[in-house]
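lol ok so funny story. i was supposed to be doing the assay writeup but got distracted and ended up predicting the structure for this chain instead. priorities right. anyway since i did it might as well share w the group, maybe its usefull for someone
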Amino acid sequence: MKSLLSPQPSLPTHVTEPRTNLSRSKVTSSLRFDRDRWIGRKKCGLTLSAVLDPATIDQFGISESEFVNPAVSTSYRSSKLPKPNQTVLDAQARVCTGPTQTKPLNEDQAFKVFDTILRSARGELKDEEQVSKAQLGAFFAAMTIRANAFPEATQWSEGEKHAVSNFWPHLVRALPSDVIFIADPEGSIMGVGSSIGPQYVGNGTSDMRLVGALREVLAGGHLGYEEVQGVLRDVLPFKFEDDKCSSGVSETLLSAFLIGQRMNRETDRELKAYCLAFDDQLGLAPVADVRSLTHYGEPYDGNTRFFRSTLFVAAVRSCYGESSLLHGVEWMPPKGGITEEQMLKFMGANTRLTPLQAKELLEDEELGFAYISQREACPSLYSLIGLREHIKKRPPLATTEKVQQFVKARGREAIVTGFYHEGYEEPLLMLMKRRGVHSGLVVKGEEGALSMTTKFRSANASKGLPVNYCSGFRSLSMDSAFELDGVSRQNFKTEVNAKDFGFEPTDTPRTDRSD
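and the output, tada:
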């Protein structure tokens, strides 16, 4: 324990008295996060360099790669990650999405994208201008799924068809076989007959299961629980070296698989497979001897527009004896926004705790609070960050990583997470129930995070679930959270109105503009 905490106390002791007895000074103390003590003493250059002016940085010879600006989330992106080709990435933002959200490319856009891909395949583009293997896999998977399974409005535009007819005869001679398979798995889409797609089985035994699964995904189909688990077992761990996964799986095929499953809108059994696939790799989670534990699963890619309050809410709740565990990453695409880990590092906290170390902090009556980075808890999954940047859109893992139990509790457990896209609230609650927790809550906060707004819903607001929509369940039994028939579990849905709690309606301050 001494290796984690210095002897001077800073957070209040375990609080059991009524809330009115919790003094303002105690709350202020808990939010200050004493840098010499809270979650381990960690003296590092991050806090110091964050307040240095440019002249001082030059004076001491600090390189740009060593400087992290706490106000700019993109400065936390690792310089070791290769950047994707921006032209193709912009196109992926339009087409690597769902059947109603996809925006087909016009002729000018399509010609520019296919010309870029052809020049890259011929070796005419260098360094960051090159189109990566992951980008090729994601883009052509999107094109194939749109042609095979999307409604007419989001299938290929006339401009895209024209671009394909012009460029594919050249691309089929320049692209590797795995990309040709993804683009035309049955040899019937691109208009130029090729036997490569129908005959493709992969470049080794590690590819075979993935290729078989991809044929179903590229046709707009779904996989069973065991099929998804089998694919994930084959590709674990996700560690890329020299453009090849350490398990031997093609990066192109893997990116096509991940984005394809998201575009087809994952079924409950597919999401459950992703959620539980890493449990065996993690091993048994340590069990904290606490009466209650709340797991906070914010979107890992952070906020870019609105304040992210969960870190501070969780810290205050820990003052009331409600142990809180947060998890996430320092930086994650596609948004690359402000995360809890960035805020903690800026305050000098140790963000390299193992689950066992986090368990000790949760059990400490003076703390009851911990943060676990995916980097420490699941390194193989963390190593996918570069791939995720190149596929542009969120893969199924972006949903399931929010519902993790890196530490369990002897007492009652709850999971709270945010969501944005309508239709994911029920699958998230399903995963929470599968985790066996006593209660679960999903919140449509601002930017899909947990932070709610105090402003009224505009009459011109878009259709769908409003911000501040909440859905969840609570177990009525103290003995077990697992229920076969749901009789002992209470479900609820509500829309939180700030005025009902005494808050006057106000616009939420924006972090991306000064007004």
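The chain has 22 helices and eleven strands. The radius of gyration is 24 Å.
back to the writeup now i swear
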